[in-house]
Amino acid sequence: MNTGNKTRDMVLAAIFVALIIIMAFTPFGYIPLGFMNATIIHVPVIIGAIILGPKYGGFLGMIFGLTSLWKNTNMPNATSFVFSPFVKMGEYGGNLGSLIICMVPRILIGIVAYYVFRGVLKALKGSKMKTTVALAAAGVAGSLTNTLLVMNLIYFLFGKEYGQAAKGLTEGIYSVIIGIICMNGIPEAIVAGILTVAITQALFKVMRN
């Protein structure tokens, strides 16, 4: 890679970092769907990974994770202890597991999205719709990577504590996890797929010109 391409990639990465930070701390990171809000903060991570590659994708995911850590530490809610080891809410407190939940799924968002994009492109070689389908698949896969890993790690690392803090439950906690995945995760994945296609195709055109 020549110096010009490296400089371009660093500039693009800085723009994606700025977008992630702005979206994380403003209402722009959320889309109201009537019964819930769908977050789209992971979309710049997905798009950045597709354009810049998996290493940048992992880096952008780390930035997303750090914004979540800061927000849950400094503006905590009843379940923020599952995302921050520095938070204690009543009898429940965060620990090393909180960092795993906060960081690992977010780092993997871009990495998974990149390889899904490349894999679908290869599988649909020769198809006129291959780029559109690959972008949509990458958006959905990146979003679900975040939702599925975060919610399942919460269950395995903080199941009882999360159930008590979130719903006052001691049983049926995984049913709550499944409900959140279905009610939040699926709409978020659909939104991420649509936005990834629309925004990335526009960026591809700009970059080609």
From TrEMBL:
InterPro entries: ECF_trnsprt_substrate-spec
Keyword terms, alphabetized: Membrane, Transmembrane, Transmembrane helix
Transmembrane segments: 12-33, 45-70, 96-121, 133-158, 173-204
Entry-linked Pfam families: ECF_trnsprt
Protein name per Swiss-Prot or TrEMBL: ECF transporter S component
